Amino acid sequence: MDYDTKLEDLALSLFNIDAVKFGDFTTKSGIKTPVYFDLRVIVSYPEVMELISDLLYEFAVKDNKSNHLCGVPYTALPIATLLSVKAKKSMLMRRKEAKSYGTKKMVEGHYNSGDTCLIIEDVVTSGSSVLETVNDLRKEGLNADEAIIILDREQGGRKNLESNSVKMKSLFTMTKLISILVAHNKITPQVGMDVANYLQSPVTIPVIDRILLPYEKRAEMTTNLAAKQLFNIMATKKTNLCLSVDLTSATDILNLVEKVGEHICMVKTHIDIIEDFSDNFITNLKSLAQKFNFLILEDRKFADIGNTVSLQYSKGLYKVGQWADCVTVHSLPGEGILKALNASMNEINQGVFLLAEMSCEGNLITPDYTEATVKMAAKYPNLITGFVCQKKETFKDPGLIQFTPGVQLESSKDNLGQVYNTPEKVILENGADIVVVGRGIVAAKSPESQAVIYKDTLWKCYAKRVSGKIE
Ligand code: 5BU
Questions:
Q1: CA-357 nearest atom, ligand 1
Q2: How many angstroms is it from 406 CA to the middle of ligand 1?
C-alpha cells in the first residue's frame, strides 16, 4: 500500500472505530463543535495502532535526527513507544504530575542536556498540551523544537506552537480528513460543509495562561483596586515577596519591617499575636508602608456569619478595617461573609484574599470546596483581590492574585503540619504570584540579607516564568 492509500485507510478506520464523530458536541470549555475526536480508543485496535505508527514513521520519524522522542501523555504514549521501537530511537517519558517521593523528575529516561527531542501528539487544537510537554523538556535542558501530530484541528495550534519555536507537522489537517470521509460517503457533503463553516467561524483564541502574563499587564486586567496596586508595586519594586511578620512584639515587628521594607510588596500580620498592641503600632506600620510602598494584609481568616464578621472587621481592639489593605477570609460560611465585607470595606482600594486551599498537611479542604470557593468569588469582582491557594489550576482570571504561603528555600516541614515548597516549585510549577515567607526570614540570623536572597530568588523565578520558556 502506498502512503496516500494508507492515509485514506487510516481516516476511514478512525471513523469506523468512533475515534472521530459528527453531531452536536460541547467541549470541556463549553464551545459547540460539529466534530469530535477521541483517539484514546485506538489502543483497542492493534491494526490501527500499526497503521498510525507506520504512517508517522514514514512521514516524519524515519529521517528525523533527534536524539529522543517523547509522547504527550497519555494518548500519544503508546504511539511514541511503537515509534521508538521501530526507529530504534530512545524514548523519554514526561510525567503529568511530579512524583511526591524520590527523584521528583518530570522527565524519565536517560538523556543529556542539549539533546534534541521530537514530540509526538495525537490531536492539536490550541497546542497547549504539546507546549506543556515542550516546557518540561526544555526545563531539563533538552531541545524540543519539533512536534509530529496525527491531526491538526486547524484552530490556532500551529501558530501557537510556532510562536513558541515549535515546528509542527501533521498527518492530517481537519480539512483533509473531512474531504476523505466525504469522498468515501462516510459523511454527507452537508456535514463536510458544516465542519468547514465551523472552521471558518471565529474560533476560540486560546486563553492566555495568567501565569505567563507580566504583573504590569495583569494590573490592567483586575477589577479590584488593591490587586491593581499590588501588581503595580510588584512590577515597580521588582519583588513578589510578602513578609509574614509573625513576631509578638510591636517593636520587633517595626524594626524588622524598617530593615526589609524595600524588598517586599506586602507585610502580612497576625495582629492578635502582638502582646503590646497599640494604635501607635498601627500608625508606625502605616508610615513604613507609605515610606517603602507596600500593602498590609491582616491574615485574620474570618470565618463567621456575615453579621459577626462585620463587627470583627470594624470594631474591637484592632479595628482591622481601618488600616488593613487586605484581609484573608474563609469561604466556609458561604456568601454572607463576602456580602458583609463588601458592605464594610470603607476604602475602595481594600480587598479580600479568599482561602481556596491551605499549605498544611491534613487540612480538610477538598477539590469541590476549592471550586465552590472560586465560583463564589466570581460574584464579587470588586471585592476579591485573589486567592490564598497552592495550585495554578485553582483559578484562571489573570486579574486575581495567587497568594501562596508555605515557602522556604529548601522543601521541608515544621513539626505542626506546615509544608514548605521551594520558590522554584511554587512560582514555576504551582503558579504563585505573591509568595509568603515567615520563619524563613524572621527566624534567620540576618533577616535583612535573607529577605534579599528570597526576593532575588523569587523574582528570578517569576522572570523565567513570564519569559515564556517555562509554562
Ligand atoms: P511560615 O513561618 O513561613 O511557615 O509562615 C507562614 C504564614 O502564612 C503564617 O503566618 C501562617 O499563618 C500563614 N499561612 C500558612 O502558612 N498557610 C496557609 O495555608 C495559610 C496561611 Br491560609
A1: 19
A2: 6
| Tens digit of each residue's pLDDT, the chain (471 residues) | 888 999 999 999 999 999 999 998 876 545 678 999 999 999 999 999 999 999 999 999 999 999 999 999 999 999 999 999 999 999 999 987 655 455 567 899 999 999 999 999 999 987 888 988 987 898 888 999 999 999 999 988 898 888 778 999 999 999 999 999 999 999 999 999 989 888 877 655 445 689 999 999 999 889 899 999 999 999 999 999 999 999 999 999 999 999 999 999 999 999 999 999 999 999 999 999 999 999 999 999 999 999 999 999 999 999 999 999 999 999 999 999 999 999 988 667 899 999 999 999 999 999 999 999 999 999 998 899 999 999 999 999 999 999 999 999 999 999 999 999 999 999 999 999 999 999 999 999 999 999 999 999 999 999 999 987 654
Which residue's C-alpha comes closest to atom 1 of ligand 1?
Answer: 438
Q: Do domains 3-200 and 210-467 have the same CATH topology?
A: no
Amino acid at 14: L
Give DSSP secondary structure letters for 198-215.
Answer: HHHSPPPPPPPPGGGS-H
Specify the ligand 1 atom closest to the Cα of 442.
2
Give me ligand 1 centre to Cα 419, in Å: 9
User: Cα–Cα distance between 329 and 388 in angstroms, integer?
Assistant: 9
Element (H, E) at 270: none
The domain over range 210-467 is classified in CATH as 3.90.1640.10:
no
Domains in the chain: boundaries = 3-200, 210-467
- Of 191, 132, 150, 124, nearest in space to 10 by CA: 150
Distance in Å, CA 212 to ligand 1 centroid: 26
Pocket test for ligand 1, best of 256, 359, 404 (most atoms within 8 A of CB): 359
| Helix/strand/coil (H/E/C) assignment for every residue in 215-235 | HHHHHCCCCCHHHHHHHHHHH
Question: Catalytic pick from 301, 319, 425, 464?
Answer: 301
pTM for this predicted structure = 0.61
CATH of region 3-200, choose from 3.60.21.10, 3.40.50.2020, 3.40.470.10, 1.20.59.10: 3.40.50.2020
Preceding amide of 215 cis, omega within 30? no
Instruction: Provide residues with CB under 6 Å of ligand 1.
Output: 244, 246, 270, 299, 355, 358-360, 388, 405-406, 418, 436-440
DSSP state of 380: -
Active site residue 301: yes
- Residue owning the nearest CA to atom 15 of ligand 1: 405
- Ligand 1 closest atom vs CA 363: 19
